[in-house]
Amino acid sequence: MPERVWEPYLTEQDRAHLAMTSPKEVGFGQRPALLLVDLYRWVFGDEPQPLLDTVEDWPGSCGLAAWDAIPHIQTLLDACRRAGIPVVHVTGLSGSGVESWSSLKQPAGNSDRKPGVVDEAALDRQRRRFDIIDECAPEEGEAVLYKTSPSAFWGTPLTGHLTRLGIDTLITCGESTSGCVRASVVDGCTNRYRMIVVEECVFDRHQATHAINLFDMHQKYADVLPLADVLEWLAEGRFEKGRI
């Protein structure tokens, strides 16, 4: 296996400890589903731009890291659809009167605009922020769940849906690695699902937090696997499809 993304960030003590202990693999179960976390406009913007060029208009942007992940996510999504496994899309919930978990931490954006001036473009971006991008849009019959907290499990019917389908394994992708993906992985592990995180299919706005959170999830809560390994497992077809 090539060098993992987190290896440049490890200290000598980290490496020595890993040489003495290694986590047990979670492994795939018998009934997988694909969980796509927060592939919405707010983190992509309308066009590929470097992070520092896009945060003025899109404060939640992950810059080019988001756009670079799209082809990998599309490859995974297509493989899961062809394999006939359930697909679950999760995005933010707006207009419900319930504040998002990030409302108190949301960047203020451009402070140079004159008081009382309505910025129609900013309002339009706000309205579209939780729209799932076209490149990964849900197909008919795929579940679409809406959340107001980082985890895909908190306040949503995800557990009930997975239970109905008999799912034991969640192949996970989306953003951000250190935020909503991690929260969903920890909750999935807590609920005793086998959590698989696809390395090329998750992304973050900060490189160091992306790498270290992948490392930490791999040590404790999930198997963080290269896309090629997940595609190979799907192609082998040694699993059952979720109950209809």
Question: Can you tell me about this structure?
Answer:
- The chain has nine helices and six strands, in the order αβαααβαβαβαβαβα.
- The chain is of the alpha/beta class.
- The protein has a six-stranded parallel β-sheet with strand order 3-2-1-4-5-6.
- The longest helix is centred in the first third of the chain and has 20 residues.
Task: Summarize the SSE layout with pairings.
Layout lengths: L11 H9 L11 E6 L3 H4 L6 H4 L9 H20 L3 E6 L27 H9 L14 E5 L10 H8 L3 E7 L1 H14 L3 E10 L3 H14 L2 E3 L1 H10 L8
Parallel strand pairs: 1-2, 1-4, 2-3, 4-5, 5-6
Helix pairs in contact: 4-9, 7-8
Characteristic terms for this protein:
244 residues, alpha/beta, six-stranded parallel sheet
On the 0 to 100 scale, the average pLDDT is 92
Biggest beta-sheet profile: 6 strands, parallel
Shape: globular
Oligomeric state, counting identical vs distinct chains: single chain
What is the terminal separation in angstroms?
37 Å
